[in-house]
Specification:
Elements (H helix, E strand, L loop, with lengths): L1 H4 L3 H19 L12 H4 L8 H4 L8 H20 L8 H20 L6 H15 L4 E4 L2 E4 L3 H13 L1 H27 L10 H6 L7 E4 L2 E4 L34
Antiparallel strand pairs: 1-2, 3-4
GO biological process, one term: response to stress
Protein name: Derlin
Family: Belongs to the derlin family.
Protein backbone atom coordinates (compact mmCIF):
# COMPACT_ATOMS: atom_id res chain seq x y z
CA UNK A 1 0.00 0.00 0.00
CA UNK A 2 2.92 2.37 0.69
CA UNK A 3 4.19 1.75 -2.84
CA UNK A 4 0.72 2.36 -4.27
CA UNK A 5 0.17 5.62 -2.38
CA UNK A 6 3.61 6.87 -3.32
CA UNK A 7 2.77 6.51 -7.03
CA UNK A 8 2.03 9.75 -8.94
CA UNK A 9 -1.62 10.90 -9.23
CA UNK A 10 -2.52 9.95 -12.81
CA UNK A 11 -1.18 6.42 -12.49
CA UNK A 12 -2.47 5.81 -8.99
CA UNK A 13 -5.72 7.73 -8.53
CA UNK A 14 -7.04 7.76 -12.09
CA UNK A 15 -5.92 4.84 -14.22
CA UNK A 16 -5.04 1.93 -11.95
CA UNK A 17 -7.61 2.52 -9.21
CA UNK A 18 -10.43 3.05 -11.72
CA UNK A 19 -9.32 0.03 -13.76
CA UNK A 20 -9.33 -2.19 -10.69
CA UNK A 21 -12.76 -0.99 -9.52
CA UNK A 22 -14.52 -1.21 -12.89
CA UNK A 23 -12.99 -4.54 -13.90
CA UNK A 24 -13.70 -6.11 -10.50
CA UNK A 25 -17.36 -5.06 -10.75
CA UNK A 26 -17.72 -6.31 -14.32
CA UNK A 27 -15.97 -9.65 -13.86
CA UNK A 28 -17.65 -10.12 -10.49
CA UNK A 29 -21.05 -9.91 -12.18
CA UNK A 30 -22.10 -6.71 -10.40
CA UNK A 31 -21.89 -4.47 -13.47
CA UNK A 32 -23.11 -5.13 -17.00
CA UNK A 33 -20.10 -4.88 -19.36
CA UNK A 34 -22.33 -3.41 -22.06
CA UNK A 35 -22.81 -0.35 -19.86
CA UNK A 36 -19.10 0.61 -19.98
CA UNK A 37 -17.88 -0.27 -23.48
CA UNK A 38 -17.55 2.25 -26.31
CA UNK A 39 -20.60 2.29 -28.59
CA UNK A 40 -21.11 5.46 -30.60
CA UNK A 41 -24.94 5.27 -31.00
CA UNK A 42 -25.25 5.33 -27.20
CA UNK A 43 -22.71 8.13 -26.83
CA UNK A 44 -24.29 10.48 -29.35
CA UNK A 45 -27.88 9.91 -28.29
CA UNK A 46 -29.78 12.18 -25.89
CA UNK A 47 -28.93 12.19 -23.08
CA UNK A 48 -25.42 11.09 -24.13
CA UNK A 49 -23.64 8.34 -22.18
CA UNK A 50 -20.37 10.22 -22.07
CA UNK A 51 -18.80 8.02 -19.40
CA UNK A 52 -18.15 5.43 -22.11
CA UNK A 53 -15.40 7.69 -23.47
CA UNK A 54 -13.44 6.90 -20.30
CA UNK A 55 -14.74 3.54 -19.11
CA UNK A 56 -13.78 1.82 -22.37
CA UNK A 57 -10.09 2.39 -21.50
CA UNK A 58 -10.11 0.73 -18.07
CA UNK A 59 -11.78 -2.65 -18.58
CA UNK A 60 -9.33 -5.53 -18.27
CA UNK A 61 -9.72 -9.07 -19.49
CA UNK A 62 -11.02 -11.83 -17.24
CA UNK A 63 -8.98 -14.39 -15.31
CA UNK A 64 -5.22 -13.90 -15.39
CA UNK A 65 -5.66 -11.00 -17.81
CA UNK A 66 -7.16 -9.03 -14.92
CA UNK A 67 -3.89 -9.33 -12.99
CA UNK A 68 -1.53 -8.89 -15.92
CA UNK A 69 -3.37 -5.89 -17.40
CA UNK A 70 -3.32 -4.12 -14.04
CA UNK A 71 0.35 -4.93 -13.48
CA UNK A 72 1.53 -3.84 -16.92
CA UNK A 73 -0.59 -0.69 -16.88
CA UNK A 74 0.77 0.26 -13.47
CA UNK A 75 4.36 -0.51 -14.49
CA UNK A 76 4.46 1.40 -17.77
CA UNK A 77 2.26 4.31 -16.68
CA UNK A 78 4.40 4.71 -13.57
CA UNK A 79 7.60 4.47 -15.62
CA UNK A 80 6.44 7.26 -17.91
CA UNK A 81 4.94 9.55 -15.30
CA UNK A 82 8.01 9.36 -13.06
CA UNK A 83 10.96 8.78 -15.35
CA UNK A 84 10.19 10.14 -18.81
CA UNK A 85 11.98 13.41 -19.70
CA UNK A 86 8.93 14.28 -21.82
CA UNK A 87 6.80 14.80 -18.73
CA UNK A 88 9.01 16.94 -16.52
CA UNK A 89 6.29 19.42 -15.50
CA UNK A 90 3.08 18.81 -13.52
CA UNK A 91 0.21 17.80 -15.79
CA UNK A 92 2.36 16.83 -18.81
CA UNK A 93 1.61 13.13 -18.47
CA UNK A 94 -2.11 13.86 -18.10
CA UNK A 95 -2.02 15.86 -21.35
CA UNK A 96 -0.25 12.96 -23.06
CA UNK A 97 -2.89 10.48 -21.87
CA UNK A 98 -5.74 12.71 -23.06
CA UNK A 99 -4.11 13.14 -26.48
CA UNK A 100 -3.40 9.46 -27.17
CA UNK A 101 -6.81 8.44 -25.81
CA UNK A 102 -8.51 10.91 -28.17
CA UNK A 103 -6.60 9.55 -31.17
CA UNK A 104 -7.45 5.99 -30.15
CA UNK A 105 -11.15 6.83 -29.88
CA UNK A 106 -11.10 8.35 -33.35
CA UNK A 107 -9.16 5.56 -35.04
CA UNK A 108 -9.97 2.45 -33.05
CA UNK A 109 -13.48 3.48 -32.05
CA UNK A 110 -15.09 5.51 -34.82
CA UNK A 111 -13.10 4.09 -37.76
CA UNK A 112 -12.52 0.46 -36.76
CA UNK A 113 -15.59 0.07 -34.57
CA UNK A 114 -13.76 -1.12 -31.46
CA UNK A 115 -15.43 -1.27 -28.05
CA UNK A 116 -12.65 -1.70 -25.44
CA UNK A 117 -9.29 0.09 -25.68
CA UNK A 118 -7.39 -0.99 -22.58
CA UNK A 119 -4.81 -3.00 -24.52
CA UNK A 120 -4.55 -0.22 -27.10
CA UNK A 121 -3.78 2.39 -24.45
CA UNK A 122 -1.29 0.03 -22.83
CA UNK A 123 0.54 -0.43 -26.14
CA UNK A 124 0.71 3.36 -26.53
CA UNK A 125 2.43 3.55 -23.14
CA UNK A 126 4.81 0.76 -24.10
CA UNK A 127 5.71 2.48 -27.39
CA UNK A 128 6.53 5.76 -25.63
CA UNK A 129 8.43 3.89 -22.92
CA UNK A 130 10.46 2.10 -25.60
CA UNK A 131 11.30 5.37 -27.36
CA UNK A 132 12.53 6.86 -24.10
CA UNK A 133 14.74 3.84 -23.37
CA UNK A 134 16.23 3.13 -26.79
CA UNK A 135 19.43 1.08 -26.67
CA UNK A 136 18.42 -0.83 -23.56
CA UNK A 137 17.23 -4.41 -23.25
CA UNK A 138 13.91 -5.83 -22.11
CA UNK A 139 12.60 -9.33 -21.47
CA UNK A 140 9.72 -10.54 -23.61
CA UNK A 141 8.30 -13.93 -22.60
CA UNK A 142 11.58 -15.91 -22.27
CA UNK A 143 13.91 -13.96 -24.55
CA UNK A 144 15.74 -10.65 -24.24
CA UNK A 145 15.19 -8.12 -27.00
CA UNK A 146 16.01 -4.43 -27.62
CA UNK A 147 13.37 -2.43 -25.81
CA UNK A 148 12.42 -0.52 -28.99
CA UNK A 149 11.21 -3.83 -30.46
CA UNK A 150 8.90 -4.50 -27.52
CA UNK A 151 5.74 -2.88 -29.00
CA UNK A 152 6.16 -4.86 -32.23
CA UNK A 153 6.73 -8.08 -30.31
CA UNK A 154 3.50 -7.52 -28.40
CA UNK A 155 1.64 -6.76 -31.63
CA UNK A 156 2.94 -10.01 -33.12
CA UNK A 157 1.77 -11.93 -30.06
CA UNK A 158 -1.66 -10.34 -30.34
CA UNK A 159 -1.79 -11.23 -34.05
CA UNK A 160 -1.02 -14.88 -33.29
CA UNK A 161 -3.37 -15.22 -30.32
CA UNK A 162 -6.18 -12.80 -31.22
CA UNK A 163 -6.13 -12.52 -34.99
CA UNK A 164 -5.70 -9.64 -37.47
CA UNK A 165 -8.60 -7.56 -36.19
CA UNK A 166 -7.34 -7.56 -32.61
CA UNK A 167 -3.81 -6.70 -33.78
CA UNK A 168 -5.11 -3.87 -35.99
CA UNK A 169 -7.11 -2.48 -33.09
CA UNK A 170 -4.10 -2.62 -30.78
CA UNK A 171 -1.87 -1.01 -33.40
CA UNK A 172 -3.88 2.20 -33.03
CA UNK A 173 -2.01 2.68 -29.76
CA UNK A 174 1.28 2.76 -31.65
CA UNK A 175 -0.17 5.27 -34.11
CA UNK A 176 -1.45 7.51 -31.31
CA UNK A 177 1.84 7.41 -29.39
CA UNK A 178 3.93 7.98 -32.52
CA UNK A 179 1.76 10.93 -33.52
CA UNK A 180 2.34 12.47 -30.10
CA UNK A 181 6.08 11.84 -30.46
CA UNK A 182 6.10 13.41 -33.92
CA UNK A 183 4.14 16.52 -32.95
CA UNK A 184 5.96 17.21 -29.69
CA UNK A 185 9.53 16.07 -30.42
CA UNK A 186 10.37 15.10 -34.00
CA UNK A 187 8.65 17.94 -35.87
CA UNK A 188 9.76 20.76 -33.54
CA UNK A 189 13.33 19.39 -33.25
CA UNK A 190 14.15 18.40 -36.82
CA UNK A 191 11.74 20.51 -38.88
CA UNK A 192 11.81 23.65 -36.81
CA UNK A 193 8.06 23.56 -36.27
CA UNK A 194 6.08 24.58 -33.24
CA UNK A 195 4.89 22.21 -30.56
CA UNK A 196 1.15 22.80 -30.37
CA UNK A 197 0.49 20.16 -27.69
CA UNK A 198 1.20 22.16 -24.56
CA UNK A 199 -0.15 21.50 -21.09
CA UNK A 200 -2.63 24.28 -20.24
CA UNK A 201 -1.80 26.45 -17.26
CA UNK A 202 -5.02 25.38 -15.52
CA UNK A 203 -3.97 21.72 -15.78
CA UNK A 204 -0.52 22.54 -14.41
CA UNK A 205 -2.09 24.27 -11.42
CA UNK A 206 -4.46 21.34 -10.92
CA UNK A 207 -1.45 19.03 -10.64
CA UNK A 208 0.34 21.29 -8.20
CA UNK A 209 2.55 23.58 -10.28
CA UNK A 210 1.88 26.43 -7.82
CA UNK A 211 2.23 24.36 -4.66
CA UNK A 212 5.15 23.15 -2.61
CA UNK A 213 6.99 20.08 -3.84
CA UNK A 214 6.22 18.44 -0.47
CA UNK A 215 2.73 17.04 -0.01
CA UNK A 216 1.50 15.70 3.31
CA UNK A 217 -0.86 12.73 3.44
CA UNK A 218 -2.36 10.67 6.20
CA UNK A 219 0.00 7.87 5.26
CA UNK A 220 3.13 10.05 5.13
CA UNK A 221 4.85 12.71 3.06
CA UNK A 222 5.49 12.51 -0.68
CA UNK A 223 7.92 14.59 -2.70
CA UNK A 224 7.27 15.79 -6.23
CA UNK A 225 10.60 16.42 -7.97
CA UNK A 226 11.00 19.62 -9.93
CA UNK A 227 12.96 17.93 -12.69
CA UNK A 228 12.73 14.55 -14.43
CA UNK A 229 13.98 11.50 -12.61
CA UNK A 230 17.08 10.06 -14.32
CA UNK A 231 16.48 7.19 -16.69
CA UNK A 232 17.27 3.77 -15.30
CA UNK A 233 18.17 0.49 -16.90
CA UNK A 234 15.32 -1.75 -18.00
CA UNK A 235 15.83 -5.16 -16.45
CA UNK A 236 12.59 -6.89 -17.41
CA UNK A 237 10.16 -6.77 -20.27
CA UNK A 238 7.57 -5.26 -17.96
CA UNK A 239 9.82 -3.06 -15.87
CA UNK A 240 12.11 -0.11 -16.50
CA UNK A 241 13.33 0.29 -12.96
CA UNK A 242 16.45 -0.87 -11.16
CA UNK A 243 16.65 -1.54 -7.45
CA UNK A 244 17.27 1.20 -4.92
CA UNK A 245 20.79 -0.20 -4.41
CA UNK A 246 21.68 0.51 -8.04
CA UNK A 247 23.17 3.94 -7.36
CA UNK A 248 26.04 5.24 -5.28
CA UNK A 249 25.93 7.73 -2.46
CA UNK A 250 27.86 10.95 -2.03
CA UNK A 251 31.06 9.05 -1.16
CA UNK A 252 31.48 10.26 2.42
CA UNK A 253 33.77 8.27 4.66
CA UNK A 254 32.07 6.50 7.57
CA UNK A 255 33.27 7.59 10.99
CA UNK A 256 34.46 10.96 9.78
CA UNK A 257 33.74 14.30 11.36
Amino acid sequence: MDRFWSAPPVTRRTIVAAMFAESALVHGGLLNPMSVVFYSPWIFKFPPELWRLLSSFILTGAGFSFIFDLYFMYTYALGLELNSPRFSQPGDFFTYVVFVATVILGTGGLVLGGHVFTQTLLLAFIYTFAQDNRGKKAHFVIVQIPVELLPWAMLTLTLVMGGPQAALQQAMGVIAAHLYDFLTRLYPTFQGGRNYIQTPAAVRRLFGADRSAFTHHAHGTSFRPGRPVPQQQSRGWASGFSSSWGGRGAGRRLGGD
